[in-house]
Automatic annotation (TrEMBL):
The gene is dnaX. Belongs to the DnaX/STICHEL family. Residues 387-403, 416-427 have a biased composition (Gly residues). Residues 474-499 have a biased composition (Polar residues). PANTHER family: PROTEIN STICHEL-LIKE 2, REPLICATION FACTOR C / DNA POLYMERASE III GAMMA-TAU SUBUNIT. InterPro entries: AAA+_ATPase, DNA_pol3_clamp-load_cplx_C, DNA_pol_III_gamma-3, DNA_pol_III_sug/sutau_N, DNA_Rep/Repair_Clamp_Loader, HLD_clamp_pol_III_gamma_tau, P-loop_NTPase. Residues 387-564, 643-747 are annotated as: Disordered. It comes from the Bacteria. This is DNA polymerase III subunit gamma/tau. Pfam families: DNA_pol3_delta2 (PF13177), DNA_pol3_gamma3 (PF12169), DNAX_ATPase_lid (PF22608). Residues 428-444, 512-538, 679-690 have a biased composition (Low complexity).
Length: 759
């Protein structure tokens, strides 16, 4: 009959103690110095060498050559206390689990005063010391505090906190630790070589893992594998089936299915696990450990060489590929879900159901809005972008795959790069993205007669002569300039005698400024002669250098984006801001329009100073910049002005003082029919014509009594924002409208409010 391996290979000296050098070396030094205490407390997990160290200490104390840190192993005391010895009469081992009462303590106290029979010291080894009752410890307290010279105590326990403080304070406490897996595997290989048993290297980590850091448990499992081995020795397949672990090939299959989002393969693997009779909890634990290894490998590529992971080189290489196919975000999220599910499986009546639900959650990160799911999706997008999986799409969440009009418009070429601007009235083609198109007069982008060269610059009409009325609004414009038409003149009547019934749906800001001028009106007959007081129109020539260029319609700040694109997509930008910050959306939802784009500087026009201050002082520009970064991949600086600029429409879509129509804006509740076309000097194409020739009309005098304030328009409840519930709303005065701020701070009275609904 063979002896158990954990007894046969029990350490006989401190040098043979594996994985506990932090305890063995101080004890050896104490024996060399002769500073031996009367009581010791050894604590730590089971099977880590506490009782064996107590026997080694007793052997060192009673050796004929001792006390010595290295027992001779030849004297009667060393042989009796050896691994295969029968024990010594003066070394008494007591199991406190069955001898922990007060009566047992009193009996020990009475026999402890007798001198040793054949040894130098009488040593009491009390195992499972935490099982001694409080009364038993109190009975031993005086003896442990002041023992006779020949008496030594060694308390061994897995729970040192249960030993009463009065006993613990009178001992030297040495905490033992779990043995590292590498040390245990070396010990197992050493024992197998000494036993002359063949083995597969891949089977040893399974035995070490089952031992969980305990040398005694590991050797017990190794003994079991040896007992069931044949002439082939210990094989991986036999170890997997005997210990109940999941085959690594099945784990590799499940991880690959997670990486490729192959739900059929995942659920087929679960079915194989259940059909083979394996415990779903064990499979979940094995899968969790595999994901843990992949997380470590993704963060520490050299984990195999540094000892963090103990796998063969070929398996490590395969695990590296698995880690790169999922990424740290997805791996961490999957590990968290498995850990939570493993806890929920305790006591569950249907662990298979829970396992399938866990795998379904791992496969569908897009169905959850938590931080881990968002990071997992972002991690996958970054890997696909790095591998060229987007098919040339631009950066951003849209990825050029549809769903985000901002990302699509920015990823596509500029509207003006596909060909010359064409289209009649009502055509929804956007204006060309060149700098010359932005300087065209109102209504030009909706007409088919505006000719453009391939360079984007307007060309000179050959039929235009001095003294004749202007036949085209944009024919004599220089890039970046605009000629203001005279009052009552229809800018479209010179191109087509048929009146336009609807403005062209162009993305240009000039078309929006000209929208009120293109309302239904009587057909204007083309005049045959100019009036007597009309000055001859100068020939079309480049604008003088003194004329300031219009700030609008400059080139875009990034590839494929220009000012006309920004104008066309401004409602989408506002909607994107609404999803990010409702407080910012409330500021820019109305009365704000883009004015110009100069390089990387986007200028916005506000209809009121209070609204502009609320945008700037409240940090709303940062929110808008973030939207441009996320949706369009551009980093633009936001500038703000009050009112519009030449070449651009005023904020809110109503004509203002700088809208390019000449005089100051006057209240006009309804559009009036325009008189027949009267050529004048202002209709000339000369951009530098002085505006002093046309004096602005004085505004109408205010009424004697202020009219009642207009009825507020109904507010959609879905758009209402509770400032208290909005984290971005700060309630500062800068966010108030201009009228409300003037009325409250300056005591002003609203006389009249212009109705812009008909403009």
């Amino acid at each position: 009959m063979s002896l158990a391996l954990y007894r046969k290979y029990r350490p006989a000296t401190f040098a043979e103690l594996k994985g506990q050098e932090h305890v063995a070396e101080p004890l050896q030094q104490a024996l060399r110095n002769g500073r031996i205490n009367h009581a010791y407390l050894f604590s730590g997990p089971r099977g880590c060498g506490k009782t064996s160290s107590a026997r080694i200490l007793a052997r060192s104390l009673n050796c004929e050559e001792g006390p010595t840190p290295d027992p001779c192993g030849k004297c009667d005391s060393c042989v009796a206390l050896g691994p295969s010895g029968s024990g010594h009469i003066d070394v008494i081992e007591i199991d406190a689990a069955s001898h922990g009462g007060v009566d047992d303590a009193r009996d020990l106290r009475e026999r402890a005063f007798f001198a040793p029979v054949a040894a130098r010291f009488k040593v009491y080894i009390i195992d499972e010391a935490h099982m001694v009752t409080r009364e038993g410890f109190n009975a031993l307290l005086k003896l442990v505090e002041e023992p006779p010279p020949h008496l030594k105590f060694v308390f061994a326990t897995t729970e040192p906190e249960k030993v009463i403080g009065t006993i613990r304070s009178r001992t030297h406490h040495y905490p033992f630790r779990l043995i590292p897996p590498g040390v245990l595997q070396d010990l197992v290989e050493e024992i197998l070589k000494s036993e002359d048993v063949p083995y597969e290297t891949s089977a040893l980590p399974l035995a070490v893992r089952a031992g969980a850091g305990s040398a005694r448990d590991t050797l017990s499992i190794l003994d079991q594998l040896l007992a069931g081995s044949d002439e082939k020795g210990i094989t991986y397949a036999r170890a997997v089936s005997l210990l109940g672990y999941t085959d690594s090939a099945l784990l590799d299959e499940v991880v690959a299915a997670f990486a490729s989002r192959n739900g059929a393969a995942v659920f087929a693997a679960i079915d194989r696990v259940i059909e083979s009779g394996q415990d779903p909890r064990r499979f979940t634990a094995d899968l969790l450990e595999r994901l843990r290894d992949l997380v470590i490998l993704s963060n520490v590529p050299e984990a195999g060489a540094s000892g963090l992971l103990n796998f063969p080189p070929d398996e490590l290489e395969q695990m590296r590929r698995q880690a790169s196919s999922m990424g740290p975000g997805e791996l961490t999220r999957a590990a968290d879900l498995l850990h939570t599910g493993l806890t929920e499986m305790r006591g569950a009546t249907s662990p298979r159901l829970l396992l399938e639900l866990i795998c379904a959650r791992i496969l569908l990160p897009a169905a959850y809005e938590d931080e881990a799911s968002m990071f997992a999706r972002l991690d996958r997008l970054e890997r696909q972008a790095g591998q060229g999986g987007f098919g040339g799409g631009q950066a951003g969440f849209g990825g050029g795959q549809g769903g985000d009009p901002l990302a699509q418009a920015f990823a596509a070429p500029a509207p003006g790069q596909g060909g010359p601007g064409q289209g009649g009235a009502g055509q929804g083609a956007p204006a060309q993205g060149s700098s010359g198109q932005a300087g065209a007069a109102p209504g030009t982008s909706g007409q088919g007669g505006a000719t453009q060269g391939t360079s984007g610059q307007p060309t000179q009409e050959a039929s235009e002569q001095p003294g004749a009325p202007a036949s085209r609004d944009g024919g004599s414009q220089t890039p970046g300039t605009q000629s203001p038409p005279s009052r009552g003149a229809d800018p479209t009547s010179s191109v087509n005698p048929t009146p336009r019934t609807a403005p062209a749906e162009s993305g240009s800001v000039d078309n929006r400024a000209a929208a009120p001028a293109t309302a239904p009106q009587p057909t204007a007959a083309r005049p045959t002669a100019a009036p007597a007081n009309a000055r001859p129109a100068p020939s079309a020539s480049p604008a003088p250098s003194s004329a300031p260029p219009a700030p609008a319609a400059s080139g875009g700040g990034g590839g494929g984006a220009d000012f006309s694109t920004i104008q066309r997509l401004w409602p989408d930008v506002v909607e994107a801001v609404k999803q990010k910050s409702r407080a910012t959306w409330m500021v820019i939802m109305s009365g704000v329009q883009p004015i110009s784009l100069d390089g990387k500087v986007l200028t916005l026009g506000f209809d009121a100073e209070g609204r502009r201050l609320g945008f700037v002082n409240g940090g709303r520009d940062a929110v808008l910049r973030e939207v441009f970064k996320e949706r369009m991949g551009v980093d633009w600086r936001i500038e703000t002005v009050v009112g519009g600029a030449s070449g651009g429409s005023p904020p809110g879509g109503r004509p203002g003082p700088s809208a390019g129509f000449g005089g100051a804006a006057t209240p006009n509740p309804a559009p009036q029919p325009r008189p027949p076309f009267q050529p004048s000097a202002q209709s000339s194409a000369q951009p530098s014509a002085p505006r002093a020739d046309r004096s602005p009309e004085p505004p109408p005098p205010p009424p004697d009594e202020p009219p009642p304030p207009p009825e507020p328009s109904p507010v959609d409840e879905s758009e209402e924002v509770d400032p208290e519930g909005d984290a971005d709303a700060d309630g500062t005065e800068a966010e108030m409208g201009g009228m409300a701020l003037i009325q409250r701070e300056l005591g002003g009275q609203i006389i009249r409010e212009i109705d812009n609904s008909a403009l």
